[in-house]
Structures are given as structure tokens and as C-alpha cells.
């Protein structure tokens, strides 16, 4: 009897311990949560990125506590996504780049304060690594991998590089899949700039995104992916596969990322669409504008159930917390995805407005929206109201919407109405809506009509949303990037590395060969004196050609210059570019055009080449070579 009692006591203690432990996710990293309360069919999440908490910049963590905690308490999101670069990992002089445990302790403490202030459950927070969180880390779980000690994901025992959570509400599923594509061997900066997905990770990503595709209940699913690196700064896998192909196959609503910061521009957004025809060779390397390749097919035959699904997705890079103090609120309303960005540089916000329908025709409309409109796929009730989420610290007195017509050349008000709140016994947030005759706003121009919402609270404080164009018939307003925006998000840097390298080597080789060929072929035909002989009879073109040939001939005679070019070519192809310690406390090694030469952790003497195409930053690293020696 006594033995039986001890066994019973042991079982009870084990149950208590299991209940007290953090909730573990399923083995494949998938969670499902159901949120109740109005508004039905609507979920919203908060995104933050590039926090860069630093011992040299304590104001970043201070402002995070000051603004983000109260804002999250007001917004009450269903999820909070933190997409990388949680800490800075840089010395004050920016020359040494490695993990600093003090910064991670600060991160942990700040997040604990945010959870306490916002009163949100810890389980809705997801934090991913960025490249700064990998500086100098030899392998996951190894020395200096403080992410595994201090991050929310690690504390909640979320294992693996792919995590997913499905939020269910109003008969819809909203699937969020996060993935960590940081380097397996975390090099120190600046040769740690790109995401490096693997074939294994893309398989896991594809499986996570398709987990509801075989369901028999046919519940609508909206898919969102989130990570740190934009696709322009993501390398191909070892077999040459791309994250973009997985996203197109799954036809995401959007991919949320960070990494680039707002110093390059505010339009760091890109629309991807699988064209019917085979893309040109150049499209693998760059895209000139935000909507390149966009084509609308709105024939009636596409309304059949056998119509091919449009493969598409939006990539939305958000601003950084580091300098811009940015936070994003993203909402999914009956499958329509919209967002608003909040700037805390001017202080806290007492009112936040997020219009959820109609969508901004510049940054949120997809090619499939035109088919949805023509074929009434979502049903007319979706179009019957203008809708917006309004978050406020104080009681709301009035919410009104104005629609402007820009055709006269100036903005002329054509619709002005008060919006009514959706009342419910149980609510997670306040949705305001107003009926409208949406057919009156059908127009072949995607930017003719503009929408704006104004809110006033009981204290008299007012807030106005940004003017945004819309198109109820699903057309998209084209937006061109600035040259800086094109430079960072329009170019596929991983794809151009090898072509650029070999083009540069070919140019150098031609500079070696051309002077010698010119000296042999032309000998004394092209001299400085002959260029000015009969000058009146020579055309400008002939003078330029003759001048170049003369230059090549003279270069062949300047032996030191020719020898320097030869040595430089041999150096680039065969010799190490520089020596250093790319991993914290590791042995001295070297870098070539194939990357850093390293030994794979826990694999004996296996040698790997790490950091392609990150070594494109070599010039910066050579200028700061001191960083590699620490």
C-alpha cells in the first residue's frame, strides 16, 4: 500500500511539473490557436524588426520599453513577430563584430517588461535571428550562441529553423510561418550579410506552408511568411533552389522581413508574379520596378473552378527600430491583407488607424484581386462596406471616412460618412464600417479614388490616416523605386556575384592581353605623333579608336603597370584575399573568391567554403582589416 502511494505521489508531482513548464510545441514546430470575439474573420499582428539593442546605445531599449509596451496593450494583437537583429553585436568603433552577452541580457529584460506592460501572453511572441545575432557564432548551441539562452523562441522550446502558428477565427485559418535562414556557421561582419537557406529548410518551409492544403473541410487559408532577409539578400541553396519558388508555389499573401532599414527608402516592397511566358535571362538578376512582370488575366473563362491558380505574393520589408523606431500593424480581413506603419520618433501614439477594405492599390493589391472582382469569388458582401480597425487609449467619439476623386486634377470629396462600430458582447478590438455603393467606384484607373479616415477620441485628440488610392475592380497602381530602393531590393545580389566576378576578371585579363596584341599588330603605326598628323582629315570616331590603340600600345611598353595587373589577376584567382578570425576565438584562416576556408563544427577535418556571396563586402572588410584580427 505504501509503495502504491509513493507511485501515485510521483505521478502527481510529474503532472504538476509538466503543467508548470512552458508550453511545448509539437515536434514539427506547428501550433494552432483559436481566438474568439469580434470582429469575426479578422486577425491582426504586430511586427518589429532590427532592434539592434546595444551597450553603446541604451536609448534603443529604453524607447522600446517606453513606446512598444503601451502600444501593444492598446492594439492587443493576436501575434507579435520580431524579425531579426535583436542585438547589435558591434563594438563602439564598429570594427569588432561578435556577440555581447550584456546586450542579450538587456534584450531578455526588455521583452519581459514589454510582456508585463502589455499584459499579452508570452506564447504569442515569436523572435527570429538576424545576421547580427549570428556574428561569430560557430554553430547553433555552441559558445556565443546567446539566442539559444535568451530568446523567447528558445525559452518556449521552439526548436528548428521553421516555426508555424495557425490563428483560427470566424471560420478562417490564418497561417503564419517563420523561418531562420541565417548562416549555419555565423561569420563575423561584414562578410555575414546574406540569408543562406538550405535544401532541407526549403522542404520544411514548403511542408509548413502546405499543412492545410489537404484538409477536407475546405476552410479558407491565408498564408503569411516572415523572416529576416529580403529575397534580394537571400542566397540560393546548395542545389540552386530559391525561397521565391516556394513562395510562388504556395501563393502567399505576403512575406514580411527586415534587414535593409529605412535609410534606403520607404518603398522597399516588391510584387512577385509567375508569368505565363518564360522569364528572360535578365529577370533572374534584377527587376526595374515594384510591379515588373505584372499581368492581369480577367477573361470570363478564368472564373471556372478549373482555372489555374495565380502564383503570386508580396514582399514587404519594414522599417527598423534601430533609428526609425518603426512598428507595423498588419491585419487580415476576410482574406484581404493590409498594414500600417507607426513611427515612434515623434512620441507615443494615442490613436492608430488601419483601413482593412478597400486595399491600397499601390502596395497591397494582387493580380488575383481582379479575378476575385470579376468572378465574385469572395461574394458581394465583402465589398458592401468600407472597414477599418481603430485602436485608441481613450473612448472614441467619432470615426468618419472621406473618398476623394482625383480626376478633376484636385482632390474632390465624393463620399463623406460616419462609420459605425461593430458591437459585440466579446470583442478583441474595434472595427468600424459604413455601407457604400461600391459599384459607383469602378474605374479603369487604379488611382482615381483615394480614401482617408479621421478619428476623434473623448479628449478631443484627432488622427487622420494616410491618403491611399484604391481600386474596387482589383487594378494595381504602379510605383517606381528610387535608385537606392532599386539597388537594395530590385537586384538579386546572390545571383550576380559569380557573373560580376568573372566579368571583372575578364576585363582585367583583356587589359593584360590587349596592349600586348596591339604592340605586336600595330607596332609603330599608332604613335602620339601620328595621332596629330593630318588631324583635319581624321573624324572624331577614328581619333577615339586611334587613341585607345595608342594607349594599349603604350601600356605594353610600361612593364611595371602590366606586371601589376598580372599580379593582381593571379592574386584574385589563386591567392587569399585576406587573413583573419571570421569566427569568435577561432584559429586564423583566410578568404578567397570562394569564401572563408573553415572546418565544419563537429565533423572532423571537413573543410567548407562559407560566405558566398557575402564576400562581395570584401573591400569594406579590407578597409577595416583590424576587425578580422580580433
From TrEMBL:
KW Transit peptide (keyword) present: no
UniProt KW keywords: Membrane, Signal, Transmembrane, Transmembrane helix
Using the record's annotation, list all stretches that form the Calcineurin-like phosphoesterase domain.
Answer: 45-262
What the entry lists under InterPro entries is as follows:
Calcineurin-like_PHP, Ig_TMM62, Metallo-depent_PP-like, TMEM62_C
Gene3D superfamilies the record matches: 3.60.21.10
Q: Where is the chain membrane-spanning?
A: 499-522, 565-584
Which Pfam families does this one have? Ig_TMM62, Metallophos, TMEM62_C
Q: Where is the signal peptide?
A: 1-26
Q: What is the lineage of its organism?
A: Eukaryota, Viridiplantae, Streptophyta, Embryophyta, Tracheophyta
Q: Per its UniProt entry, which superkingdom is the organism in? A: Eukaryota
Q: Which residues form the TMEM62 Ig-like domain?
A: 348-475
Q: Which SUPFAM superfamilies match?
A: Metallo-dependent phosphatases
Record protein name field = Calcineurin-like phosphoesterase domain-containing protein
Q: Where is the TMEM62 C-terminal domain?
A: 498-616
The answer, when asked if Transport is one of the entry's keywords, is no
Organism equals: Urochloa decumbens
Amino acid at each position: 500500500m505504501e509503495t502504491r502511494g509513493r507511485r501515485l505521489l510521483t505521478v502527481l508531482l510529474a503532472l504538476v511539473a509538466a503543467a508548470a513548464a512552458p508550453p511545448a510545441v509539437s515536434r514539427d514546430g506547428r501550433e494552432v490557436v483559436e481566438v474568439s470575439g469580434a470582429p469575426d474573420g479578422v486577425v491582426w499582428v504586430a511586427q518589429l524588426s532590427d532592434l539592434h539593442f546595444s551597450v553603446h546605445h541604451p536609448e534603443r531599449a529604453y524607447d522600446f520599453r517606453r513606446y512598444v509596451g503601451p502600444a501593444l496593450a492598446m492594439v492587443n494583437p493576436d501575434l507579435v513577430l520580431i524579425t531579426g537583429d535583436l542585438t547589435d553585436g558591434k563594438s563602439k568603433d564598429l570594427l569588432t563584430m561578435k556577440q555581447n552577452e550584456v546586450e542579450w541580457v538587456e534584450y531578455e529584460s526588455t521583452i519581459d517588461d514589454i510582456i508585463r506592460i502589455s499584459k499579452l501572453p508570452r506564447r504569442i511572441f515569436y523572435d527570429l535571428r538576424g545576421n547580427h545575432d549570428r556574428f561569430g557564432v560557430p554553430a547553433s548551441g555552441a559558445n556565443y550562441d546567446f539566442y539559444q539562452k535568451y530568446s523567447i523562441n528558445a525559452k518556449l522550446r521552439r526548436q528548428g529553423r521553421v516555426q508555424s502558428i495557425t490563428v483560427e477565427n470566424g471560420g478562417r485559418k490564418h497561417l503564419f510561418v517563420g523561418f531562420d535562414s541565417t548562416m549555419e556557421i555565423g561569420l563575423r561582419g561584414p562578410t555575414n550579410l546574406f540569408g543562406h537557406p538550405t535544401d532541407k529548410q526549403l522542404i520544411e518551409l514548403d511542408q509548413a506552408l502546405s499543412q492545410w492544403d489537404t484538409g477536407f473541410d475546405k476552410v479558407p487559408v491565408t498564408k503569411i511568411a516572415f523572416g529576416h532577409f529580403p529575397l534580394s539578400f537571400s542566397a540560393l541553396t546548395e542545389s540552386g533552389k530559391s525561397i521565391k519558388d516556394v513562395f510562388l508555389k504556395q501563393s502567399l499573401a505576403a512575406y514580411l522581413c527586415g534587414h535593409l532599414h529605412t535609410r534606403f527608402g520607404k518603398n522597399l516592397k516588391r510584387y512577385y508574379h509567375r508569368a505565363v511566358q518564360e522569364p528572360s535571362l535578365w529577370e533572374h538578376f534584377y527587376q526595374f520596378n515594384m510591379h515588373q512582370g505584372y499581368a492581369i488575366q480577367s477573361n470570363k473563362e478564368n472564373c471556372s473552378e478549373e482555372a489555374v491558380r495565380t502564383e503570386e505574393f508580396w514582399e514587404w520589408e519594414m522599417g527598423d527600430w534601430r533609428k526609425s523606431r518603426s512598428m507595423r500593424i498588419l491585419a487580415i480581413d476576410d482574406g484581404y491583407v493590409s498594414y500600417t506603419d507607426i513611427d515612434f520618433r515623434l512620441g507615443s501614439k494615442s490613436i492608430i488607424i488601419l483601413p482593412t477594405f478597400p486595399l491600397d492599390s499601390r502596395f497591397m493589391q494582387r493580380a488575383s484581386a481582379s479575378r476575385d472582382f470579376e468572378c465574385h469569388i469572395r461574394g458581394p458582401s465583402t465589398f458592401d462596406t468600407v472597414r477599418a480597425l481603430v485602436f485608441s487609449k481613450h473612448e472614441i467619439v467619432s470615426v468618419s471616412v472621406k473618398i476623394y476623386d482625383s480626376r478633376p486634377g484636385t482632390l474632390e470629396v465624393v463620399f463623406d460618412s460616419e462609420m459605425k462600430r461593430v458591437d459585440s458582447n466579446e470583442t478583441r478590438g474595434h472595427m468600424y464600417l459604413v455601407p457604400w455603393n461600391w459599384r459607383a467606384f469602378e474605374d479603369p484607373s487604379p488611382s482615381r479614388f483615394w480614401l482617408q479616415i479621421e478619428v476623434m477620441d473623448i479628449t478631443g485628440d484627432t488622427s487622420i490616416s494616410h491618403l491611399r488610392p484604391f481600386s474596387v475592380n482589383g487594378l494595381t497602381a504602379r510605383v517606381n523605386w528610387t535608385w537606392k530602393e532599386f539597388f537594395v531590393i530590385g537586384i538579386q545580389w546572390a545571383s550576380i556575384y559569380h557573373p560580376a566576378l568573372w566579368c571583372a576578371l575578364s576585363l582585367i585579363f583583356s587589359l593584360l592581353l590587349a596592349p600586348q596584341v596591339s604592340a605586336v599588330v600595330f607596332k609603330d603605326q599608332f604613335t602620339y605623333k601620328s595621332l596629330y598628323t593630318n588631324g583635319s582629315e581624321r573624324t572624331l570616331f577614328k581619333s577615339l579608336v586611334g587613341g585607345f590603340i595608342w594607349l594599349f600600345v603604350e601600356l605594353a611598353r610600361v612593364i611595371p603597370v602590366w606586371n601589376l595587373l598580372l599580379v593582381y589577376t593571379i592574386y584574385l584567382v589563386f591567392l587569399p584575399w585576406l587573413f583573419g578570425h571570421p569566427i569568435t576565438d577561432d584559429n586564423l584562416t583566410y578568404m578567397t573568391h570562394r569564401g572563408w576556408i573553415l572546418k565544419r563544427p563537429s565533423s572532423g577535418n571537413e573543410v567548407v567554403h562559407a560566405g558566398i556571396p557575402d564576400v562581395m563586402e570584401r573591400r569594406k572588410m579590407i578597409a577595416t582589416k583590424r576587425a578580422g584580427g580580433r
